[in-house]
Structure formats: C-alpha cells, structure tokens
Design a protein that fits this description.
Layout: H1 2-23, E1 40-45, H2 47-57, H3 65-68, E2 87-92, E3 97-117, H4 119-124, E4 131-155, E5 158-178, E6 213-219, E7 223-239, E8 242-257, E9 260-268, E10 273-282, E11 285-293, E12 299-304
Antiparallel strand pairs: 1-2, 1-12, 2-3, 3-4, 4-5, 5-6, 5-7, 6-9, 7-8, 8-11, 8-12, 9-10
Length: 305
C-alpha cells in the first residue's frame, strides 16, 4: 500500500511541477496543447521509474541503474526473451490520425572461461600444476516490433485514442561448450568443468559410452511470434506537447518454435572410438495466446516535436 502511495505521489509531483512551470508563462502567448499534423512523438515508459522511486523508500536494496531503465530478461534455452523496456514513437499524419510503432531489442554474447587441470601434463608428471581452459559461449537475442494506425480525439488537454497494431517478435538461443582436455582412448573421462558453467550442460546419457559430454545446444531456427494488438489509451497534456498517458491492449498472438537439439561426444569402449551424437531435446511446437496485456508503454510520458 505504501508503495502505491509513493508512486501516486510521484506522478502528482510531476503534474504539479509542469503546472507551476506553465503558471510562470501566464503573460506569454498561448501555445497549442495537443499535437498537430506533422508532429513526431517519443514515449518513455514510467513504470521502471516509479518502481525505482518506490524502492528508494521501502528499504529494499534491489535498486540499481539497470532497474531504472528496466531489467532485461535473458533466459536459458527455450524461454522467451522479452525486453522490459521498449521505445515508442508516433507520427501525426493529421490532427486526429497517427501511426505508432513500438520496438524493443535485447541480446547478449558471453564467453565464460574456467581453468582445469591439464590431464596430459599431469599424466607425465603427477606434481604438475599446469592448467588449461574450458570455455562456455552463450548467445541470446530477441526483438519485438508493433506498428499500426491510431484514431485520436480530444479536447484541450485530454486526448483519447484507439488503434490496431501488427505485432512481430523473434527469439533465439545458442550454447557452445569447448573443453581443453579431449576425449581419447587413453583418457576416456577427461577433467572438465561442465557442471560449473553458468548454464551447465545436461547430457542425454548414452549407456554404452564411458561418459557423455555436451558440446553444444542449438535451435533449427528462431522462435517466431506474430499477431494483432488492439489498443485503447488516453493522454493528458500537462503542458504543450508533453503528455502523461496510459493504455490497455487486447492481443492475439501465434507462436512457432522450432526444435531444440544438442551435440554430444563420448568414448565407446565397444568400438574403441570417440563418437558423436545429435540428441533432440524438444520438437517444434506452436502456441496461440490471447488476452488483455500491455506491450511497452503501460504508463508513460510522451514528448511531441
């Protein structure tokens, strides 16, 4: 409850500041309040700002500059990768008709390296402290884009709008494991850091191998999302061409996810050879989802130029 009060207080403080700024210009020529044809709008999501401000007063230590801008979600294999903050823009074709776009992108490439005993050097000298490196490489990426027309209607400081957007998104994940000690006939279970990586490889055990090791997880293609989003919203112009807004949306999205698989290696004592296998982790799937939700700016501030 205290958190809600703090957020409401912050919004009212922003409105009060804008009102006082305008009151100082009483003697000046009146400027238009609502955006006009040819104006371009840029929206900033206020939810991370309010969350950050609320956390300042509730004693939490879970506050950082990354949460001020929205905490990106970077998942493991097969999970969605939505950015919590996206960029909203508008172009006013007429005073009452605009085109809106909302885009959010996210990605990460990581290379994690860990030392491990050099098995070859240790076999030659049990007192050897020589180390080599195991490497884990992670690649995550995702994007969401919505674009569509809006009809707007308003008086003086208040303007409502309704729109229909086309929504598209994709997400991709890839993991690669590289080990310093190779699997050989002499060293069938080499020293490796597999279980200590940020994303530990979980092998599909091959019974006739001495030990099973994962060398990579892959996806045949990107996970694709496509759908429609109906939007209803309202903006209140606290000063000329500067508005606080809020909206709700009704979406229907079809998702297509391609299959995930992983590459494995191990020594087969029956054939006295190092063997490689491709194991299917999950088949391709499709999901249809719908409901009321908010993509991007739920409570926002909009600037028009």
């Amino acid at each position: 409850m205290n958190n809600i009060k703090i957020k409401i207080t912050l919004v009212l403080a922003i409105c009060s500041f804008a009102w006082m700024s305008q009151a100082q210009n009483v003697g000046q020529k009146e400027k238009p309040i609502l955006p006009k044809a040819g104006d371009i709008g840029l929206g900033i999501d206020l939810v991370p700002v309010l969350r950050y401000a609320g956390n300042m007063f509730n004693g939490t230590v879970n506050n950082g500059w990354n949460t001020f801008g929205g905490e990106p979600t970077l998942p493991g294999v097969g999970l969605p990768v939505p950015p919590n903050v996206s960029i909203t823009g508008r172009y006013m074709f007429t005073d009452n008709f605009s085109l809106r776009t909302n885009v959010g992108i996210i990605g990460r490439k990581m290379s994690e390296q860990l030392y491990i005993r050099d098995d070859e050097a240790f076999a030659k000298n049990p007192l050897s402290e020589t180390k080599i490196i195991d490497t884990y490489k992670q690649n995550r990426s995702g994007m969401i884009l919505s674009v569509g027309p809006e009809l707007r209607r308003g008086y003086h400081r208040i303007q409502g709008y309704a729109g229909l957007n086309l929504v598209y998104a994709f997400e991709a994940a890839r993991d690669v494991y590289q080990y310093g000690n190779a699997v050989t006939e002499i060293n069938q279970t080499p020293s490796r850091n597999a279980g200590l990586f940020t994303v530990a490889p979980m092998p599909v055990v091959v019974p006739y191998w001495t030990q099973t090791y994962v060398t990579g997880r892959y996806q045949d293609g990107n996970t694709q999302h496509i759908g429609l989003e109906g939007v209803l919203g309202v903006e209140y112009y606290i000063t000329s061409h500067l508005a606080l807004g809020g909206e709700v949306s009704l979406y229907a999205i079809q998702t297509f996810r391609s299959r995930f698989y992983q590459e494995q290696e191990g020594f087969n004592p029956l054939t006295d050879q190092v063997e490689y296998r491709t194991e299917l982790l999950s088949p391709s799937t499709s999901v249809f989802s719908y409901g009321t939700d908010n993509l991007g700016t739920r409570l926002y501030m909009m600037f028009y130029f």
